[in-house]
Write a structure and sequence with these properties.
mainly alpha, two-stranded antiparallel ribbon, elongated
Length: about 140
């Protein structure tokens, strides 16, 4: 069983997948930082709110233990208050769009790179019998 596991892990596809997952996780962190640290502050200039996650619609009452305290979205969510968190959803959509666009650009450039670097396939050589038949055809036409 150990040898089968080693053979499975040693395959190129498994290693490529592992590298892809690790790089994908790091890329997700970069996209999250881009959204939270660059894009959202710029959007806050337009909307007036620096953090979209604080935009929500409370659907239920505030629990007694939170009455009189400064409550935010995270505290209400932890307390189990039903809410419509449209700001957090909007942030997730923005993250997705940025990530999808970045992946699109990467794939676009990778396809262009691999299309140029792949050597053109040589035309297969015509079989000798076909050449002979062509000569016969041409001589019959004369």
């Amino acid at each position: 069983m150990l040898n089968e596991f080693k053979a499975f892990i040693a395959r190129g596809n498994v290693l490529d997948l592992a590298v892809g997952v690790i790089i994908g996780g790091a890329f997700g962190t970069i996209v999250k930082s881009l959204t939270e640290d660059v894009i959202m502050p710029l959007l806050s200039l337009v909307t007036g709110s620096a953090d979209f996650t604080e935009n929500y619609l409370r659907l239920g009452p505030i629990p007694a233990e939170l009455q009189g305290k400064a409550v935010d979205y995270a505290a209400l969510k932890a307390a189990g208050v039903p809410m419509l968190g449209y700001g957090a959803f909007l942030t997730a959509i923005i993250n997705f769009v940025i990530l999808a666009f970045a992946v699109f650009l990467i794939v676009k450039h990778a396809n262009r790179f691999f299309a140029k670097s792949a050597p053109a396939a040589a035309a297969p050589e015509t079989p000798e019998d076909v050449l002979l038949l062509r000569e016969i055809r041409d001589s019959l036409k004369k």
